[in-house]
Design goal:
By secondary structure, this protein is an alpha+beta fold. It has a domain of about 100 residues: Type I PLP-dependent aspartate aminotransferase-like (Major domain) (Aspartate Aminotransferase, domain 2). Helices cover about 30% and strands about 15% of the residues. It contains four helices and five strands; from the N terminus they run H-E-E-E-H-H-H-E-E. The strands form two sheets. The chain has a three-stranded mixed β-sheet. It has a two-stranded antiparallel ribbon with strand order 4-5. The two termini are about 20 Å apart.
Length: about 150
């Protein structure tokens, strides 16, 4: 589901107003899949914590991270957290390379261009077994008509 325009901005405002950390789960939607580096970027929202994975491993290795400012991460001290892949130099190197590749903006632009093409193709199926299409970049959801199955 793609949140309606303004939803993330409202969540950000509420979190700021009530001194609550905003956590954005960008494991599926982050790192260029939606046509922006983070899906939150579509509304210009910066959460306090990003949860990232999947694409961060470049399809080569399982890599997941949380990313936040020092104000947030500074409270985590050695021995007070757990990690499935922590301390492994291979996924760290892969993740670093993926971040470097994303810095060019090339992958975000490619996701936007191909995403437009994908959405046009999927939209043409509405009424022919497809009820609705939601897409942002190369991240798409399709509602299949159960009657047509």
């Amino acid at each position: 589901m793609i949140p309606p325009e303004g939803y993330l901005r409202e969540v950000r405002a509420l979190c700021s107003e009530h001194d609550v950390l905003m956590v954005a789960d960008e494991i599926q939607s982050g790192l260029a899949r939606s046509g922006r580096t983070f899906a939150c970027d579509h509304e210009g929202v910066v959460p306090d914590i990003y949860v990232l994975g999947k694409a961060l491993g470049g399809g080569l290795y399982p890599v997941s991270v949380i990313a936040a400012d020092a104000d947030v991460l500074g409270v985590v001290e050695p021995g007070t957290h757990g990690s499935t892949f922590g301390g492994n130099p291979l996924p760290a190197a892969i993740g670093h390379e993926v971040v470097q590749m994303l810095a060019t903006g090339e992958f975000q632009e490619r996701a936007r261009v191909l995403g437009d093409r994908l959405k046009q193709g999927l939209d043409s199926l509405v009424g022919s077994g497809v009820l609705a299409v939601r897409a942002r970049g190369l991240w798409a959801g399709v509602d299949i008509d159960p009657v047509s199955i």
